[in-house]
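debug: dumping io for the single-chain case to check the tokenizer round-trip. Nothing else runs in this session.
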Amino acid sequence: MKSYPAWARALMLLVLIPARVGFSQKQPPSFEITGPTIIAFFSPVTQNQTDDNEALSDFQFYFSKVGDPLKRAGISLYRADAHSFRVRNAGRSQTFRSGKIVVGYYLVSPGVAPQIQYGVMTDSDLLEIARKYFHRAID
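debug: decoded output
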């Protein structure tokens, strides 16, 4: 068995132990834009916050109602439970950070600048915004 100098063993501990204990940095979600896309975002909350969070409850309810109409219109719908996420659009990558308003919708098409809507939206409001941004009929 190979013996390592003390400095090398200490360095290995500094590198390996944090990953095992849970100190590793979690990468933000990443999305490749290949067509009309909506990324609904809501910053992560603890279980206690989830139980009493009316905004999150409304967000989840309306999110569940828009999936089928958007899919029929050829619009992808994703959810990012994160403070930030990465978007690759037309060969360019950028990171979106939600800032102080932690809930909203990121509408984007290949090669087109995104439109960001902050706050919880009803299903009919989100579908109307999508109709205008994507120039598509949505039932």
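debug: round-trip ok. The helical segments are 6-21, 47-51, 54-72, 123-134.
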